Amino acid sequence: MVKICCIGAGYVGGPTMAVIAYKCPDIEVAVVDISVPRISAWNSDQLPIYEPGLDDVVKHCRCKNLFFSTDVEKHVFEADIVFVSVNTPTKTRGLGAGKAADLTYWESAARMIADVSKSDKIVVEKSTVPVKTAEAIEKILTHNSKGINYQILSNPEFLAEGTAIQDLFNPDRVLIGGRETPEGYKAVKALKDVYSHWVPEDRILTTNLWSAELSKLAANAFLAQRISSVNAMSALCEATGADVSQVAYAVGTDSRIGPKFLNASVGFGGSCFQKDILNLVYICECNGLPEVAEYWKQVIKINDYQKSRFVNRIVSSMFNTVANKKVAILGFAFKKDTGDTRETPAIDVCQGLLGDKAQLSIYDPQPMSPTTKKKVHCVWDAYEATKDAHAVCILTEWDEFKKLDFQRIYDNMQKPAFVFDGRNVVDANKLREIGFIVYSIGKPLDAWLKDLPAVA
Ligand SMILES: NC(=O)C1=CN([C@@H]2O[C@H](COP(=O)(O)OP(=O)(O)OC[C@H]3O[C@@H](n4cnc5c(N)ncnc54)[C@H](O)[C@@H]3O)[C@@H](O)[C@H]2O)C=CC1
Ligand SMILES: O=C(O)[C@H]1O[C@H](OP(=O)(O)OP(=O)(O)OC[C@H]2O[C@@H](n3ccc(=O)[nH]c3=O)[C@H](O)[C@@H]2O)[C@H](O)[C@@H](O)[C@@H]1O
């Protein structure tokens, strides 16, 4: 029986390995982590992450061919294939701080693999890493190899949170990069055999190591660029009376452009887009390509602009001050159907409003982390959040926000009552009929808002 071990039981390691175990009953999969609470949660009824469909997949294989453990060394020792899916955040200190990927966790995982291994292993980069990381990992492993043969593969993950199980069951493609040597091809084939249990052959792409590593950063940069492009258009729409949804639809019907990922928003968030673009920018700079670096940096600049533009809209609409006014925040997660609040645009919007001394009352359908709860006032119901508020800000596109009784909300709010829709989820005209003053990203402006400055 092939044995797989995955180091890192996070948003990627957990769901990815659960699906491998589910689709490959002949393979034994162990997911290991240094975090005891995380592993305990994976072994309980309350999984550490919320992802539609994940519970069923985990329940189906846990303790059969899927195991979660803190005994990292034992499972690495036993494995034929070791996936490394540890976090690779942006460096906060030292060389490349604020841009480069912090590979501390990766390096310590690689050193541990070298320490405990007694047999040949395929080591798979699942984390998103800078191009050429495989070379560094190879050096760490081979310098400590004790005669063991390691093959490094790059197998970046393209799942999106909220649709992880769907994405893993039916991926657009699986990408595997390896060394162009006989041993390298053999390792690529071994990993391909795992995915071929359920992924059609023509969707498993094989490349050299560097193409696979760079394709992951490129894919995230292209996706984020589309959002910044439509968000840049949203500002122009507001200035001209065009409607960003109509523009996006018209643009997206061109088959060369395509309709997906063109929803204007308060800005993109999540743990990866910004981190991966910063990483790309840093790699460009290190390779003497400042113009290319500047090009990608602009995607982040527009995203920051979009978030501050939204805050400025709120403050300027409400007589230029939100001091001591209750503002209800509906949605804190970085997108719907996830409990993840990492790098959510809601953090920047809330900070902006708190900077103007607003009193925030936050409601998200998913429970907030204890750290977030300590910093802001969270409530368990949208009606409680909006009671006596001057304004409602919608920051995540949860479906339940579309179904709220806005007449009830209006009746219980201070007047004039404002709605700032950062996700274009509500029917603005219906809300206007109730009496709200409504701002929707990239949509024709209310008379109230028209003459106010959009950006201070
Ligand atoms: N979150 C997402 O949707 C996606 C993330 N990625 C990439 O996948 C990687 C992992 O991301 P997430 O799963 O979101 O991170 P995460 O932070 O949820 O999980 C990483 C886990 O690795 C563990 N860990 C760190 N060092 C360790 C070590 N030496 N030994 C054992 N465990 C260790 C941590 O305790 C943590 O539980 C990142 O590189 C990210 O860019 C790629 C595609 C999607
Ligand atoms: O490397 C990663 O971590 C992953 O990053 C993204 O996945 P994720 O961040 O989970 O979620 P997305 O659906 O891409 O959304 C990212 C952000 O963009 C925003 N967004 C998305 C689409 C859109 O049209 N408009 C928009 O503002 C979302 O609300 C969210 O804040 C990519 O979609 C995945 O392919 C990739 O694997």
Automatic annotation (TrEMBL):
User: What does the record give under GO molecular function?
Assistant: UDP-glucose 6-dehydrogenase activity
Q: Which Pfam families match?
A: UDPG_MGDP_dh, UDPG_MGDP_dh_C, UDPG_MGDP_dh_N
Q: What are the UniProt keywords, alphabetically?
A: NAD, Oxidoreductase
**UDP-glucose/GDP-mannose dehydrogenase C-terminal domain ranges (all copies):** 328-428
Record pathway: Nucleotide-sugar biosynthesis; UDP-alpha-D-glucuronate biosynthesis; UDP-alpha-D-glucuronate from UDP-alpha-D-glucose: step 1/1
Question: Catalytic center at which residues?
Answer: C272
Q: Which reaction does it catalyse?
A: UDP-alpha-D-glucose + 2 NAD(+) + H2O = UDP-alpha-D-glucuronate + 2 NADH + 3 H(+)
Q: Where does NAD(+) bind?
A: 8-13, 33, 38, 86-90, 127-128, 161, 272-275, 342
Q: Which EC numbers characterise this protein's activity in its record?
A: 1.1.1.22
Name the source's superkingdom: Eukaryota
The similarity annotation says:
Belongs to the UDP-glucose/GDP-mannose dehydrogenase family.
Q: What is this protein called?
A: UDP-glucose 6-dehydrogenase
